[in-house]
Structure formats: structure tokens, C-alpha cells
Specification:
With 399 residues, the protein is an alpha/beta fold. It contains 13 helices and 12 strands. The chain has helices at residues 6-10, 20-28, 47-54, 70-81, 97-109, 125-133, 153-157, 182-195, 253-265, 271-280, 285-308, 332-341, 377-393; strands spanning 32-35, 92-95, 115-120, 136-141, 164-170, 198-202, 228-233, 246-250, 322-326, 348-351, 353-354, 368-372. The strands form 3 sheets. The protein has a 7-stranded mixed sheet, sandwiched between helices. Strand 5 (164-170), helix 8 and strand 6 form a beta-alpha-beta unit.
């Protein structure tokens, strides 16, 4: 039998989805599982989007242009302008979700062996996309005790080599909920200029910023316009994870030309998804305001609840809808698996994402979990009770 690829062997397993079989077994036993593990919003998709889906009137579901439907990209231009992201329609390439946007950005900009510096904890799939493209991720660790603030410039510069090609940030951040300040973004800009690097900026959570300071996009940074490759998605802001529509936004002509080669090779992004996403841009302002206010309330409720549990700590996230929490456990991988396989409280349990999956060093994040506040407050309240009971019963509790 032929050997499978080493690339496939090197691909990391999802820190979340490896627990799915345990969750399914728990449900088969009649237990209710509170899913705090994944960024799947429970809030409704905009009605205008659902109506557009129901009213699709076509006799042929054809290929769309490889770069995406023109009318959709034209409406995206107006959307970005509202955030002072001044781009043109030709700067936008529609992708099959934000994941493809990251992957195509890597493939278009990086050669095998090129290095990307990423602050961690970081979205686990960045590593998978880097392995797929032959790139190498070098991480600079932030600390929960410092609220996951951007590490110092010196920490970044210690990692820079002749193979360093890019810095990757997620702002607001998944998994920490951290929101980079103007000072921190300026530090990133200065490093990008000094070393002539690409700046990959994942900004899919831009609607969810919980501070009075203005939202800062990589496109707001002066002097690096041709270095910026912005990644976006409609999944989170419109509760449309399943339609798989994202985008790459860049003013770099050569990057766009390279990205288009990958787009043409995969033919086209999803037609139906684009029609739904285009309609979503007509959602009334009240829709986004209601969604925003709901997450603000959930955030306060969850963080207050976590920090009242003995031995637990979470900094206050200023963006997205995640937080990283420190728990009094010996190993969060074991704890998360134990909650699903061996624990229940009143026929209920919880599913969380182990912190180690968001670090490259397996020794890091061992007492941390990522929690997504994508459940209504009544469910969050019950999940917090179950978490407290689980920590009391867990045999690997650290006192």
C-alpha cells in the first residue's frame, strides 16, 4: 500500500472537532451539551437574506465569475467605506469563506519555507493553512496575565530572519477577544515597513468592538497600502457560517493577479452563498445594533460569571465573541474530554475548546480554555453552573 503524504501527517487536528465524538456520545446518553466550543452564532440570519434565498428565481445555477459576482463586490465597496476602508471593486476577490481567503493569501504571497510571525494564542487553522502552503509559522506568545496585549516589538524582531515574509494578526482576535490599540497597530505598521513584510489582517469580527475607541483596520495604517492583505467573511456578522462566503481585499496588483490564479483553478465561489450575502448587506441598521447589544450583555454576564468561580480567571475581551479563561485544572485537554465523557450535572454538561490547540508549543495553554458566548444568557447561566460543578468534581483540579 502506498504511503500517505507527510504533509497530511503534519496537518494538526482541530482542537475542537476532535471532541465531537465525545459530545455525540454524551448526547446519545441523553445529556444536554452546552456548546461553548465553537463560534457558531445562535442569533438569526437577517430576514432579507433568508427571503433572498427563498426567492431565488433562476433556471440555471451557473458558475459565477472566479472573482465573485460584480454586484456583490460593488455593494461590499459601500460596506467597507462605512468603516473608512477605502477600496475599489477591483480590490475585492470573493472566496469560499474566510478560510479560503487565508489559504489563497498564503499561496499567492509565500513560497515554501517562508516564515509568518503570528501572535498567539491564535486561530488553530492558521497553522493548517501554513502547512498546506509550505510556509512556516513562528509564534510570539501573549499572556493571559497581561490581557493578551501585543508582545513587544523586541519579541517580534527576535524571530525575524531572511525568510520572514509576513506578519499575521486577527483583530478583533479569535480566540482571545483582544482588540489591538492604535499604538499597537502603529508598532505593527512600523515593523512591516522596516522589514518590507506582508501584513495579513483577519478582520472578520470588526462589528464586534466593545470599546469607545475607533475600530482600526490594517487599511487605516499609512504607508503600507501595498503590503496589506485583508481577510474577511460574512459568517459571523450575519450568522451565515454555512453559506461559505469570504473575501480577500488588497491593493497590491501582483497579489491580486496571483490570487486570481488560485480562484480560477477552483472555478468560482458559491453562487447561492453570494446571493444570500449580497442581500445581507441590505439588513437594516437595527439588525446589527440588536446583535451588537446582545453580545455586549452576554460578554458581561459570562465574564462576571467565570471570575466568580473559585480559581477561574478571564480578562475582559474587547472584541469578537470569545474569551480565553484560566481554569484550576492540570490539563484542559483532559478536563474538556472528561466533561463530555465522564461528567454530568442534572443530565447536562459543557463543551469547550482546550487552550493548547491555540498555541504551537504543546506546553502552553494547558490550564486555559476558549469559551464562545454564542448562547443566550439563560443557557450561559446554566453552563456556568455546570462548569462550577465540573471543577468541583474533576479529579485533576489544581488547588
Amino acid at each position: 500500500m502506498p504511503n500517505i503524504s507527510q504533509r497530511g501527517v503534519s496537518m494538526p487536528a482541530s482542537p475542537i472537532r476532535k471532541l465531537v465524538p465525545l459530545a455525540n456520545k454524551a448526547k446519545a446518553k441523553g445529556r444536554k451539551v452546552y456548546h461553548l466550543n465553537i463560534g457558531q452564532p445562535d442569533l438569526p440570519t437577517p430576514q432579507v437574506a433568508l427571503d433572498a434565498l427563498k426567492k431565488i428565481d433562476r433556471t440555471v445555477l451557473e458558475y459565477s465569475p472566479s472573482e465573485g459576482i460584480l454586484s456583490f463586490r460593488e455593494k461590499l465597496v459601500k460596506y467597507y467605506h462605512k468603516f473608512n476602508i477605502m477600496v475599489d471593486v477591483d480590490d475585492i476577490i470573493v472566496t469560499t469563506g474566510g478560510s479560503e481567503a487565508v489559504f489563497f493569501s498564503f499561496m499567492a504571497c509565500l513560497d515554501p519555507g517562508d516564515e509568518i510571525i503570528v501572535p498567539e494564542p491564535a486561530y488553530a487553522n492558521y497553522m493548517a493553512f501554513a502547512i498546506s502552503s509550505g510556509a512556516v509559522i513562528k509564534t510570539v506568545s501573549s499572556s493571559i496575565d497581561e490581557g493578551f496585549a501585543l508582545p513587544s516589538v523586541e519579541k517580534f524582531e527576535e524571530l525575524i530572519t531572511p525568510r520572514t515574509k509576513a506578519i499575521l494578526i486577527c483583530n478583533p482576535n479569535n480566540p482571545t477577544g483582544y482588540l489591538y490599540t492604535q499604538k499597537e497597530m502603529n508598532q505593527i505598521r512600523d515593523m512591516v515597513k522596516k522589514y518590507d513584510l506582508f501584513l495579513f489582517s483577519d478582520e472578520v469580527y470588526r462589528e464586534f468592538c466593545y470599546t469607545g475607541a475607533p475600530y482600526i483596520s490594517a487599511f487605516h495604517l499609512e504607508g503600507i497600502e501595498n503590503n496589506v492583505v485583508l481577510v474577511d467573511s460574512v459568517s459571523k456578522r450575519y450568522s451565515e457560517c454555512g453559506i461559505r462566503i469570504g473575501a480577500i481585499i488588497t491593493k497590491n496588483k501582483m497579489v491580486k493577479e496571483n490570487v486570481m490564479k488560485w480562484c480560477q483553478a477552483r472555478l468560482s465561489p458559491p453562487l447561492l452563498g453570494q446571493l444570500v450575502a449580497e442581500a445581507s448587506l441590505d439588513a437594516p441598521e437595527e439588525y446589527m445594533l440588536d446583535v451588537y447589544n446582545e453580545y455586549v450583555e452576554r460578554r458581561k454576564f459570562l465574564i462576571d460569571g467565570i471570575n466568580r468561580i473559585p480559581g477561574c480567571y478571564s480578562p475582559i475581551p474587547m472584541g469578537a465573541f470569545y474569551t480565553m479563561a484560566k481554569l484550576p485544572v492540570d490539563d484542559s485537554d483532559k478536563f474538556c474530554a472528561w466533561c463530555l465523557s465522564e461528567f454530568e450535572y442534572e443530565e447536562q454538561t459543557i463543551m469547550m475548546a482546550p487552550g493548547s490547540g491555540f498555541y504551537t508549543d504543546p506546553a502552553l495553554g494547558r490550564n486555559e480554555v476558549r469559551i464562545a458566548y454564542v448562547l443566550k444568557k439563560e443557557d450561559l447561566a446554566r453552563a456556568l453552573v455546570v462548569l462550577a460543578k465540573a471543577l468541583e468534581a474533576y479529579p485533576g483540579r489544581v488547588i
